[in-house]
Amino acid sequence: MRAHPAAAICAAVLLLAACGVDDGDPAEQPIEDAPDDEVPVEDPADGTADDPAEDDVTDPPDDDAIDASDPLLGPEIETALDDAEERSGLPREELTITVTELVTWPDGAAGCPEPDMMYTQALVDGYRIVIEADGRAYHYVGAEGQDPSYCESPQEPVS
């Protein structure tokens, strides 16, 4: 028995129509193809669209906002401040912390290789701290779990 071409076309149209399910008002449907930062958000108070990217603007961090009690580097910062105070001969109030960051060092020297020394050739998690006093920078480096060491010629961490 041979199917009629018109019947086959009608069946295909009905199948395709059944695939398009109407879930209600298109204005209430999520926009799936747009990145999150480009999707307009309606303000519930007045029903107007708002660009969320405008709300994400933050002021740059204040250099004086570095917190010496940071749980990641708190004790290390305190140790470095004590040493910088002694080295500079200046009171702590005249010291400025300019850099505190967790880094990865390229080897076991943890940022401060000494001449004629051999170091483990493996990446080492650590940190660096820079304190300025009277126009001079005092660099402190260390490996995770170790006290900071003053370093006159610090190495750059792995980027």
Properties at a glance:
single chain; 159 residues; alpha+beta; four-stranded antiparallel β-sheet; two-stranded antiparallel sheet; 3 helices; 21% helix; globular
What does this structure look like?
By secondary structure, this protein is of the alpha+beta class. The chain has a domain at 63-150. Helices cover 21% and strands 22% of the residues. It has helices at 5-19, 52-55, 74-88, and strands spanning 41-42, 49-50, 95-105, 124-133, 136-143, 149-150. The strands form two sheets. The protein has a four-stranded antiparallel beta sheet, with helices on one face. A hairpin with a 5-residue loop joins strand 5 and strand 6. Mean pLDDT is 74; it is low at 52-69.
Instruction: Count helical runs.
Output: 3
Query: What share of the residues lie within helices?
Result: 10-25%
Q: What's the average pLDDT?
A: 74
Q: Largest sheet, order of strands side by side?
A: 3-4-5-6
Largest sheet: 4 strands, antiparallel
In whole angstroms, how far apart are the ends? 73 Å
